[in-house]
Every structure is written in structure tokens, then in C-alpha cells.
Amino acid sequence: MIAPWTPERMRPFDRFNRMMEEFFETPNVFRNWMPTVDVKETNKEFTFVAELPGVKEENIEVEVIGDALHIRGRRDFVDEEKREDYVRIERSYGTFHRMFTLEHPVKPDDIVATFKDGLLMVRVPKLEGVKPFRVEVRKN
Q: Fewest CB atoms less than 10 Å from the CB: which of 20, 40, 65, 138?
């Protein structure tokens, strides 16, 4: 009979994983990162809320190109202490880019982006008068 996996049995694997990460992985400091974004759609608008902790407002860019919303930016490494004093750096820094397809015509001139407490909110109003048209499928 094989013994079940327990935390005690996993400890050697945890140590091995840490050693492999340290050996093969480059530090997160210069790697791109991907912030999380919640997307909500109503009949009137799309709403995007991106978590951007540690990002300065001047380092955020919001752009609509064709039928896509692009959110770009940069989170800089804050070297508060000497880097050699760190045992491990897990927070990611550098540039990011998120792109979302807008599957409904929108009003680009009415898009509003606000940034407060590390949250970027982008409201994208839909173009009024454009309603889906359902086509009946008939048997031949």
C-alpha cells in the first residue's frame, strides 16, 4: 500500500522545487507581468477593473484600436534596500499589456478611465441602436 501524500512527505519536494526555481529561474525583477482584470458587460457598457498595485498613474496607458481595448503600463522596482540583502524576490516588475476584444461597437469618445488605490476602472459605453439580429435557420 502506498502512503497518502501528507505535508511531511511533501517537504523534500518543496525544497527541491525551491532549488530548481533558484537555479533555472531568472529574477522576477525584469520580467513582464500580467495584472488581473475583471470584465463586466451590461446592455449599455463594458466595465474593466484592473488591479495595478504599485503602478504610478503616469505609467498607465489605455487605448482602443479597432475593436480592441489595450491596457499597458509599467511597474518599477523600488529598491528600498540593497538588492543583495533580499533572500527572494517574488513580486514581478516591468511592463505589462492586456488586450480585450470588444464584441460590440463602442463610443470611443465617451470612454472614461479612472485610477484610485491601485485599481484602474475603464468604462466603455456601447454604441446605441446596434442590436443583435437573430436569423432563423430553416431546413432545406
A: 138
pTM for this prediction: 0.68
C-alpha cell at 73: 503600463
The Cα–Cα gap between 99 and 78 comes to 27
Which value, to the nearest 10 degrees, does the dihedral of the CA atoms of residues 37, 115, 42, 70 take?
A: -60
CA 26 – CA 77 distance, rounded (Å): 15
* Encoded amino acid at 21, one letter: E
Question: What is the side-by-side strand order in the sheet with 119-125?
Answer: 37-41, 45-51, 119-125, 112-116
- The pLDDT profile of the chain, 140 residues, written as one tens digit per residue, is 555 555 555 566 566 666 666 655 554 445 568 999 999 999 999 999 999 999 999 999 999 999 999 999 999 877 666 666 777 777 788 899 999 999 899 999 999 999 999 999 999 999 987 666 788 898 87
